[in-house]
Protein: Calsyntenin-3
Amino acid sequence: GLGLLLPTSHAVLRVWLANKHKPWIEAEYQGIIMENDNTVLLNPPLFALDKDAPLRYAGEICGFRIHGAGVPFEAVILDKATGEGLIRAKEPVDCEAHKEHTFTIQAYDCGEGPDGANTKKSHKATVHVRVNDVNEFAPVFVEKLYRVAVTEGKLYDRILRVEAIDGDCSPQYSQICYYEILTPNIPFLIDNDGNIENTEKLQYSGDRLYRFTVTAYDLEIQVKPTCKPSWQGWNKRIEYTPGAGSLALFPSIHLETCDEPLWNIQATVELQTNHVKSLRKLCGAASGEIDLLPVPSPTANWTARLSVHYSQDSSLIYWFNGSQAAQVPVMNGLHAHEGLSDHFTLSVWMKHAVVPSKGRREEETVICSTVQSEDGYSHYSLAVHGCRIAFLYWPLLESARPVKFLWKLEQVCDDEWHHYALNLEFPTVTLYVDGVSYDPALIHDNGLIHPPRQEPSLMIGACWTEEKNKEKIKGNENSTDTGDNYPLLIHHYFHGYLAGFTVRPGSLESREVIECLYACREGLDYSDFDSLGKGMKVHVNPSQSLLTLEGDDVETFNHAIQHVAYMNSLRFATPGVRPLRLTTAVKCFSEESCVSIPDVEGYVVVLQPDAPQILLSGTAHFAHTASDFEAPDGVPLFPNLQITCSISHQVEAKKDENWHGTVTDTRMSDEIVHNLDGCEISLVGDDLDPEREYLLLDGAALQQRGLELVNTSAYLTITGVESIAVYEEILRQVSYHINHGAALYERKFHLSCTEMNGRYSSNEFTVEMNVLHNMNRAAHPNHILSSQQFIHRGHHLPPELSGHSLASTHNNAMVPSAATIIIVVCVGFLALMVILGILRIHSLHRRGMGQEVPGAAAGGHTSTGSKDSDMFWDDSALTIIVNPMEVRSNDRNLGPPGANKDMEEDDDSTDSETPDSPDSNDVDDRHIIGKSDSSHRY
Structure:
């Protein structure tokens, strides 16, 4: 059969994420610029932050704008990802013209796409810039020549005073330091104020005229700095390239003690990350977890009243102030999921704020919940009490006794961020803190606790108690009464920060995943333990945010601190600024003269990582018969799909090479393990019709690999972290199926994949599939008729058209317009010829009327020969040849309504005269226009 291909059109629409937040900068900056320099040194440094980071465009800073009339400065962006900027002078500044400049600055992001649409601007910050003077002007005397006359024989205290001025703007360089007489052997002196006096009595009989030269010197004092104990040789800004491993923070630092003998040195390096990573996908955590503290929305409004903070990677952090709690609705909480009662995993980032209290420390509840299961009600709560963390579990409120598991950990009360994961598989409970597992220190059987009410409830940041216990604990400061209409009292409020609070019901998180959730974080590192000097101690806290060194020798201590490094195990780390602080405490032999070492403050700038290029390739166009698509397995969409990943990075030229500069090198990153986290197959054009077509993929195979499948009429998505090889295998199994008899001819699909939580996307791979149908199949009569809409009914195709294939999309599209043009041209030409013929006959008839015909007087009538001569038309000068097929179409479709009957008669009478081909050699075989029973030709 012939395959019918229908022309289609499609449009590609790229959607960028919305720009929700404005950039943020400091409110005020102080700057200094030297007269011979063009860079302004700002305090604090110029950085703009955007909560939309790390989104492209919306989370990037495109630049800064300076507001003010005649401001001789401009602001440039150094790094769009980190928002680092620089203020510099447009032209050399002059302290003598303006000592200070004040203006405002504003940051703006890159909007929602490459065109900069919906750009948001920060508030305006005030910038004060002071121009520091340099000694560029020499002193100049007020008068070029001084003249004075004196009386002989006298000693004067001041004969005259010379004055010089300096053009520099600062007192340091504009002040005249002293004067000096350059001419030797003269009886005069000059002091520092320019007063000239004589050193001996002058005689008129001697020299009557003295001429000498005086010069002035401006002030230039070189001050030798006093020794100040401090750290020397460190850089405030430290740049880190993702994937570089460990980077030494202070490679050239040394401690200056000003010769003060020390017997103990203790230094603490603190990396202030203060943000939470969303690493569940990256670590391969299984799906099914429930976010207990989601972003406030109409469907999740229980977090709307909590104080929200944003970390540097835009993660949500909730602050509980000791009087707030979040009541999670049962319908949206974890109670709608089965299997939570005795098997689940709680995971949370927590920074417990230790609040000094006058009396006994109160228990603070992190989460409190009563769960309904098939067997009845169970209850559990997680709380902190001082440096202890407690988990209370009540397997069955009706019969079982409650059990409390206790851990005493310093991480609970050190006012730092830690990751907590609790696995419950009753009666076994395991607590992971920063990826390290801890067994309970104590297990109490609290059988005397009054059971809570048997009603499903979930509260975060506090817990509730029954009405009968109100009077007992009403005097407690850490409790609030909910009112007379509500029989519960809320107490044991939590004080601190919570983020990333999730629960996974029904199954436990593996040890590997929990360790990865913590271990993937950035932090401080110390690896040079082999060369650690005698008496040196190094301690790193579990979160790797605090590193402490202790020693007694300055040289050994300097060597040790030079090996403190920053590490980030993520190949594609989140760019941004990480504040850094070094605090030092020393002990001297003499307490009275002991020195103090000021703190060192800097920051680590994580640069934008080299973006990986994920390339999807394969067969982009193919056609199959309809029977193949109607088979139970359908036709695979991506039978030979290839997924590759490469990284483009800058490589500097080697010194021994002749060329200079940098080149862009693209290398296959096989040494880096790449895992995709999702792929989407979308349709071009209309959605799938479930009654006629659908996509096939084995969902059971995906579940075995821990992947999720969403298959709708508009798209098919696969989510979950897996290797490239696994995704290739799965996508090659996706097939397209159509039902028997469905009139479908063409489909286009887009495939795209992502990695790193959707941060990096692949190219959009398009596949076009054509369905080939047999023309003899009754399922497609409309398309057969449409191909014949310009063929006269009852007639076969002429031989000159019999060789054309109806499967050509372009030919079919061109038939209607071409036939219409030919018909119009032929009809117009025919009408013109008919009009010319009528005019010719009419003119001949008029000439014939003016001539006498023989026999007219005798017979009184004209002869037959006269009539024939009147009707005779010499056709030697006019020949009309008409395409027979076009004439038939025109006669039938374009003729006047009243001529239909005559045209039918003409058709019957001229069928035998229609030529089989326009190549006929018979000149007399011509189509007759009009109705005539004679042999005349026109």
About this structure: The mean pLDDT is 74. The radius of gyration is 48 Å. DSSP finds 13 helices and 56 strands in the chain. The CA atoms of residues 29 and 44 lie 6 Å apart.
